[in-house]
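Look over this record before class:
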Amino acid sequence: MKDLLYLLIELSQPLTLAWLLLTLWLLVALVRRRPGMRLLRLAWLALTLVSCTPLPSWLLAQLENRHPAVRLEDLPKADFIVCLGGGMEPGRREPTGIHLTLGGADRLTTALALAVRRQAPALVLGGGGSLRDGKWVAQADVITAELARIAPLPVETLTLGLCADTHEEAVKAAALAQQRGWTKVLLVTSASHMPRAAATFAKTGLQVIAVPCSYESSFNRSDEVHWLHLPHAGGFSIYSAWLHEVLGLIVYRWRDWI
C-alpha cells in the first residue's frame, strides 16, 4: 500500500505528468504516422535522458572524480585554508545568522572541520555578496562575524571580501598569501568545481592541496543507481551544475586563468 501511495505521488508530479503526456503524444503520432516528428522525438529524448536516467550524474561524476576523495586525518598541514563561496550566505532570520544553501553546504562544514583540527593556522572564506539594508556586503564578512559570535575557532579567520568569481577569489588569496609569506593552501570546494578551482589557484603560484567535498552525483553518493526511473527534477540541477563547470573550464582556458 505504501509503495502504491508513493507511486501515485510520483505520477501526480507536474514533471512526471508532462513527461507521460509527451510520451503518449509521441506514441499516438508515431502510430498515425504524422509528419514532422523529428523535433518532438528530440524533445522527448532530451527530457527522458535528463530526468529519467542517471546520465546527468554520470557526467557530473567525471568532473567530481578528477581529484581523489580525501579523509581529514590523511591531509597534510598547510599555511592556510580557503573555503570558496557558493554554499553559504547570511541568514537574516536564521538562529545562527548563517544559511547553508543546497548543493554547497559541505564546503563550510569541511572547512570548519579542518580549522578545528588545526590543519592550518588560518581559515579564509570567499564568496559573493548580498544586499543588506540597501547595500552590498561580502557574504564572507557577515559569516565570519557570525562564526566568531556563535563558535569561535582555534585559528585566525579572514575573508577575501566581495568576489565576483573563482578567479577573483584566487587572485585575492594569492595576494594575501604573498603578504603573509604563505605558499601552501588547503582548498575546499565542491568536487565538481575542484578541477577549475584548483587549476585557477595553481595558476597564481600557490601550492594547492585539493579538499573536494559536496559530491552530488548519485554514483558518488550511493551504491544503488537506478538506470531508468520516473522523471525527477533533480536531474536538471545536476545537469546544470555539470554544464556550468564545462563552460566555465572553456571560458577560463580562453582567458588564460588556468
